[in-house]
Amino acid sequence: MVMNRRLFMTLSATGLAARSWIPVPRALPVLPATKARIKAVAFDAFPIFDPRPVFALAEELFPGSGLSDEWRTRQFEYTWLRVAAHHYADFWQVTGEALLFATTKLKLRLRPDDRTRLMNAYLALKAWPDVRPTLESLKASGLKLALLSNLTPTMLGANIKSAGLEGMFERVLSTDEAKTFKPDPRAYQLGVDALKVKREEILFVAFAGWDAAGAKLFGYPTYWVNRQRLPPEEMGVRPDGSGETLTDLVTFVS
Prior knowledge:
Number of strands: 8
CATH class of the largest domain: Alpha Beta
Structural class: alpha/beta
Radius of gyration: 18 Å
Mean pLDDT: 89
Strand order of the largest sheet: 5-4-1-6-7-8
Number of helices: 10
Largest sheet: 6 strands, parallel
Number of domains: 2
CATH superfamily of the largest domain: HAD superfamily/HAD-like
Oligomer: single chain
Distance between the termini: 46 Å
Order of helices and strands: HEEHHHHEHEHEHEHEEH
Strand content: 5-15%
């Protein structure tokens, strides 16, 4: 049975998906985001790193199979299922397990060298074209910048190097530190603890609609970089701002 992701997000954002003995930050209502209040910006990885080459490689190796969609869907479902089941494994392991499931489901023969190529593609991502000028503009304005991602520390470090973004972020935060995944509130709490400012002073920048909703439910002012032009999740919340590029984000905070 596939878990309903909206149900899981509701449970995790209110703390009901966690063991009762694990302290979970209480979700707070968010006041309207203002320019003066925002002191830091925390990015998910994928507004920064372009994941399309991973899926292009999947299509190259297995043309017309639908592997990229099946792999990507199962990858994130596994993160939510592992949090709900209290059976954590890091994002690298989850990604490999999702790839194995997807190829098995689609009856594809996954050779060891193809598996290695597909997995290693997640260690060599480049930045979207609008990333560097956006980060430079935000840093020049005095904002603290951070990454807050489900990717492992190794994955984040490798992609920062691959994208040529060394030194751009004051903090690089993996949810692996909390042994959980977004949208668990404990994952978003990492940003508050690391940046030493209030949650309402941290603008969270999401790539996925579910992440934008989870961050908003946690209490972050939230901006959704909706590069895929998707509708927002029906979770009873909306991001404070949205646009199709990071250039739109600069306009939002300026």
